[in-house]
């Protein structure tokens, strides 16, 4: 797993469909298309176990098996929001139209956004995040309650005398 302070240098962009997974490796700039089956994915992804991060888009559940395999191979993975990735691609002045292009842009999105916005894998429970995390925090006093500044609206007079039939 990656360390929170480590910069992401290598990513895998994975464009997932029901039948296939298109993989782009940012280190070798290699693109592969793999059938979306457990045994084939394990065999194809094993050589990429040293990559810093793997990114795929949410595709209605087709990526669930892939994410489980990445977890089993100890490759940190992130399921990116498809709308954010598409907005990123448009902001670069491009449009992704094919699976290999989508996979390449996913890898680039991971390189550009990993340090700032992508969630990091959780730390083991035995490793505190900082020395300050081992000391108890001082409790701050509770802020005073705000008083309601609005007064209730006066009731309408005619509502009291109105009778429903």
Strand order of the largest sheet: 3-2-1-4-5
Contiguous low-pLDDT stretches (5 residues minimum) are 1-5, 120-137
Structural class: alpha/beta
Number of helical segments with 4 or more residues:
5
Q: Summarize the helix and strand pattern as letters.
A: EEEHEHEHHH
The beta-strand count equals 5
Strand content: 15-25%
Q: What is the terminal-to-terminal distance? A: 72 Å
Mean pLDDT: 77
Determine Rg (CA atoms, Å): 25 Å
Look at the structure and name the CATH superfamily of the domain at 11-113: YqgF/RNase H-like domain
**Main β-sheet description:** 5 strands, mixed
Based on the coordinates given, report the CATH architecture of the domain at 11-113.
2-Layer Sandwich
Task: Give the overall form.
Answer: elongated
CATH class of the domain at 11-113: Alpha Beta
Any overview of this molecule?
By secondary structure, the chain is of the alpha/beta class. It has a domain at 11-113: YqgF/RNase H-like domain (Nucleotidyltransferase, domain 5, 2-Layer Sandwich), CATH 3.30.420. It is built from five helices and five strands. Helix 1 packs across helix 2. The radius of gyration is 25 Å and the shape is elongated. Residues 1-5 and 120-137 have low confidence and may be disordered.
Descriptive key words:
5 strands; 165 residues; alpha/beta; five-stranded mixed β-sheet; 5 helices; Nucleotidyltransferase, domain 5; elongated; single chain; disordered N terminus; 28% helix
SSE topology:
Elements lengths: L10 E6 L3 E6 L4 E6 L2 H8 L7 E5 L6 H9 L4 E4 L1 H10 L7 H15 L43 H5 L4
Parallel strand pairs: 1-4, 4-5
Antiparallel strand pairs: 1-2, 2-3
Helix pairs in contact: 1-2
């Amino acid at each position: 797993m990656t360390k929170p302070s480590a910069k992401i240098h290598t990513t895998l962009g994975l464009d997932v469909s029901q039948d296939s997974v298109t993989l782009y490796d940012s280190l070798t700039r290699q693109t592969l298309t793999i059938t979306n089956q457990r045994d084939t994915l394990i065999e194809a992804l094993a050589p990429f176990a040293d990559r810093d991060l793997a990114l795929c888009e949410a595709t209605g559940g087709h990526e669930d098996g892939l994410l489980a395999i990445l977890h089993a191979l100890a490759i940190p993975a992130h399921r990116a929001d498809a709308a954010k990735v598409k907005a990123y691609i448009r902001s670069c002045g491009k449009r992704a139209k094919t699976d290999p292009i989508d996979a390449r842009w996913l890898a680039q999105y991971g390189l550009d956004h990993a340090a700032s916005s992508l969630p990091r894998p959780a730390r083991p429970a035995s490793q505190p995040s900082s020395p300050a995390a081992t000391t108890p925090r001082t409790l701050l006093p509770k802020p005073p309650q705000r008083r309601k500044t609005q007064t209730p609206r006066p009731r309408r007079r005619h509502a009291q005398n109105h009778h429903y039939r």
